[in-house]
Design a protein that fits this description.
This protein is mostly helical. It is built from one helix and no strands.
Length: 68
């Protein structure tokens, strides 16, 4: 093999390596964003459930008071 073909193979290997690093970096960014969205959704659901629980407790207290 001459130096031109060796340089071409080395360049191709470098390109594949850089492409692999970029893909892994992009995928890790997507996973991180998905996890953050999951945390936000869980927090919003817990807040909503807490509000619903508070409202239902308030309604039960008012109903009991009205019945008494």
């Amino acid at each position: 093999m001459d130096t031109v073909s060796l340089a071409g193979v080395a360049l191709l290997i470098a390109f594949v390596a850089v492409f692999a690093v970029v893909v892994v970096s992009y995928m890790s960014s997507l996973v991180k964003n998905a996890y953050q969205i999951k945390i936000e959704i869980r927090s919003e659901m817990e807040d909503g459930l807490r509000r619903m629980s508070d409202d239902s407790e308030k309604w039960v207290r008012m109903t009991k008071r009205d019945l008494l």
